[in-house]
Write a structure and sequence with these properties.
The protein is of the alpha+beta class. Helix content is 28%, strand content 34%. It folds into two domains: 99 residues, Rossmann fold (3-Layer(aba) Sandwich); 156 residues, Tumour Suppressor Smad4, CATH 2.60.200.40. Helix 1 runs parallel beside helix 2.
Length: 274
């Protein structure tokens, strides 16, 4: 399909191992490769982001993963044919990345319950069930995960202390199939933050339903804002996950990496930073 659109593939590599994937990406950047096309989900895009950040190599994204939030954020419709058409058209935009504890992420980071659910979702299950894997894998964590006390600081004066089960911070727009915040954008120069203070099982179910309907910011216990930098401390310490892959535990310091990644985008992509 790439060749049919006049895109000549000079090298092809296939890997399910993140370390091997990262080496291929880093080698491509060292060779000053002009275009790197990556087929995968958000975890693969995060590996690419860490290798390509602030380089001249342009990323072409093919949405072939369980979750394709990054692809949706840059305006892809989830279809392979249209993603290849975007690469062939050749429009390039410089988009933001998130950074947490020294690592870049392509779209979002999670703390607490959603990080636990991602940990419980093995690759094999995701290949067979797709997004439903997160539903089945989330049953046990939803029943066993305990609330934690979070202290959040952002920019110069923002302060928030609360009991919660989950925190989501996005550099892009989408968390799953819905925008994390109505104003979230991958070119705004700001991170999007979302959490809730409801900690019961009923509160969790209500939050997940609201996410499915795109009404999570309407919840009475929701806390949401945008910022350039965010620091999160949790007691007890919580799992931290970026784009579906584990990254240790809290505390976590986030910042926006402005215009860090060059990527092919649709011709109607809106750059809100301009």
């Amino acid at each position: 399909m790439l060749e049919a659109r006049g895109i000549r593939v000079l090298e092809f590599h296939s890997s399910h191992d993140p370390a091997s994937m990262r080496r291929h990406f880093e080698q491509a950047v060292k060779r000053k490769t002009k275009t790197l096309i990556v087929g995968g989900g958000d975890g693969s895009m995060a590996q690419a982001a860490n290798a390509l950040a602030y380089s001249d190599t342009v990323l072409g994204a093919l949405p072939l993963g369980t979750g394709n939030s990054f692809a949706a954020t840059i305006g892809l419709d989830g279809q392979l044919e249209s993603a290849i058409e975007v690469i062939a058209n050749g429009r390039v935009a410089s988009v933001d990345l998130g950074m947490v504890n020294g690592r870049y992420f392509a779209n979002f980071a999670t703390i607490g319950l959603p990080a636990e659910i991602a940990k419980e979702s093995p690759s094999r299950l995701k290949r067979f069930l797709g997004p439903l894997a997160y539903v089945f894998a989330g049953i046990r964590p939803m029943l066993t995960h305990k609330p934690f006390r979070a202290k959040v600081r952002w920019d110069r004066s923002g302060r928030l202390t609360l009991q919660t089960q989950q925190i989501v911070i996005a550099s892009g727009r989408f968390f799953g199939k819905q925008p994390l915040l109505p104003s979230a954008s991958i070119t705004s120069g700001r991170l999007a933050f979302f959490t809730t203070s409801g900690v019961s099982h009923l509160d969790l179910v209500r939050t997940f339903v609201a996410f499915g309907l795109g009404r999570q910011t309407k919840l009475g216990d929701a806390h949401a804002f945008s910022a350039e930098s965010i620091a999160v401390r949790a007691k007890p310490k919580q799992l931290l996950n970026i784009d579906g892959d584990p990254l240790g535990t809290t505390p976590a310091r986030f910042r926006i990496a402005r215009r860090a990644l060059r990527v092919f985008v649709p011709v109607d992509f809106v750059d809100e930073g301009k």
